[in-house]
Amino acid sequence: MTDAPALSCAELKALVRTVPDFPAPGIQFRDITTLIADGPGLAATIAHLAGRVEASGADMVAGMEARGFIFGAAVAARLGIGFLPVRKPGKLPVETMGVDYALEYGADRLEIDPGAVRDGARIALVDDLIATGGTACASAALLRKAGAVVDHAFFVIDLPDLGGAQRLRAEDIGVDALMDFEGD
Length: 184
What we know:
InterPro entries: Ade_phspho_trans, PRTase-like, PRTase_dom, UPRTase/APRTase. The chain is an alpha/beta fold.
């Protein structure tokens, strides 16, 4: 059982810095650096996420490179369950299982160590932000291909106008975020 977080989600949202016109004009970049640099803020974020992951019944957490490693590993450690990194290509020293997926302007690939996935394991996705959902959907597909049950995804931030949460829900994955920001 996780302890109650010291800060509310509204208080955590105030710790996220907005950087205008990055990486391109008109984009409002939501920077979690200020949130993770704040000790009580980071601890409360992990506590909120851990409570939600615990309630989902997951027995393992998967985090996408790279900021999903920060939150996913911390949540898994807090709950005493395993963590599985979903990596970029060429980062794992063993034979991998991978999936290619489309980006807005190109393609990318994600890989896992299939030996780290127990058949039927209930794996919750954890990441810092859901935007278009491409990486999260690809991660879920990859984990399912490896034999896992993936029916929950948890994020610190949702950018609902970009439709990623809806894409995950269309794949029968429940989506929960601690906060959302309208716009890009």
